[in-house]
Amino acid sequence: MKTIATGNKAVAEAVQQARPAVIAAYPITPQTAIIEQIAKAVSSGTLNSRFISVESEHSAMAACIGASLTGVRTFTATSSQGLLYMHEMTNWAAGSRLPIVMANVNRAVAPGWNIWADHTDALQERDTGWLQVYAGSVQEAYDAVLMAFPIAEHEDVLLPVMVNLDGFALSHIFQPLETVEVGDFIAPLHLPHAIDTRDPAGYGVLTGPESYFKFRWDIERSMRDSVNVIQSVQEDFSRRFGRSYGFTEDYLCSDAEVVVMAMGTLGKEAEIAVDLLRVEGIKAGSMRLRWLRPFPELNLAGREVVVIDRSYSFGFGGVLATSVRSRIKREVYSVIAGLGGQEVSYEDIAGFVRRRCIGREDWFGVNGHV
Amino acid sequence: MFEIRIHSRGGQGGVTASRLVALAAIHDGKYATACVFYSPQRRGAPVISFVRIDDFPVRIYSHIQNPDLVVILDKGLLETVDVFQKLKKGGKILINSSEGKIFPGFSSSHADLTQIAHRERLVVAGYLILNTPLLGALARMGVVSLDSARKAIREMFPDPRNIRAAEAAYREMSP
Hints:
The structure holds two protein chains of two kinds. Chain A is an alpha/beta fold. Chain A is 37% helix and 18% strand. By secondary structure, chain B is α/β, with parallel strands linked by helices.
């Protein structure tokens, strides 16, 4: 059905269609509309799930972990400080191999107090063992949530998935949305290590030096296997519903001499910058990174690369720039832009490309930088 | 692409108006997005919302720099906000006012949306809601069709007073 929706509403719609048994969440701007809509669906009876209102995000994730351990589908949503508060439990979710799906509405981290788009929150979760995907449109946020469940729950993965959407820029924008009849796209969850609630027992989780590393390796093995699973779920989605997704979204890349890389809404806006640059005779392309974990192979041979980071690792560099540089084993032009919702237009992005200086890092808007 | 910037005050319905316009444009078979420059929301504070309408999917998220049309829901904002900032040369202006005003270099229209909302008792939490009459005025200006405006209003605000208010604005606004 064709309609118009915000990113938050699109996420909530997709969650209702995936029918988790348990949703546990705590409100936080700019995510609150997601769980408000889900809570409403539960209370009106249109969604037959258990909604657990908790007193904090730490408890939200803990409740999802407890529910997921019994082998049922779970969902939560958060943002920024809420995600940071959850951090201990996000590690626990991945380590326990639980296919929890979470929507994270990307928002800056305080102080200074700031409710606008920024990727620092999710990137501080980078090494927890969660798969991470970033949406570039309302439609994609909806589609990504629908795909997150079969990916997380696949027997070769059994890891949690975080669907990221930019605060306000995507969570609150109204865009066209085409919903689908899900049918059997999301198979029933079978968790091989589910606990038996009829025969309760406690298991120690103490894991000694002789075996701990095996559990860590098993997470990495599944992370590597998730590449094929993501690919096949995205292909299945495309066959059924007609919308195709890859690990990156490439725009005019095939003959490009310079490629802009970014995540989320800035990656979408970069396509307009590419159109402008092409008119000027600059052979530009845009490669919007969708999956941060697992981090994909990048086909960037022979092109200059401009990376836009909406976050920063202090003392080293932009997180995305660092990752791309490491993947392609070459220098890039790194631009730090859009922190805390800083306004970055397609004109600005075109300017980054025109004034690119491979090997340098510039902070947009800082004196003496771009 | 047709770009609209709506200046309103928190509580007047400017944000919802931007969503109504986008929905009506989609019913016209176009692509559209509506967004707001969000700041901590306060009633009475100046609010800016944006609508983009195009024949192709809209991929822009940044604020509208050079609007084709500026809508001013509270003429008091003329005193405090640079509402015409970077409005395109020859661009259109729609003011919520009982009388017309001339702005050299631009083409300006007016409609008494407040009076229409008052007549139809479109009040939420003590505030007159101007979004549905605004959509009627924009239909008269050709931004969206009247049929699509009616359809969008029916979907978002089924109360018939909203359709009546839109139709009144369509009839009564300055040509």
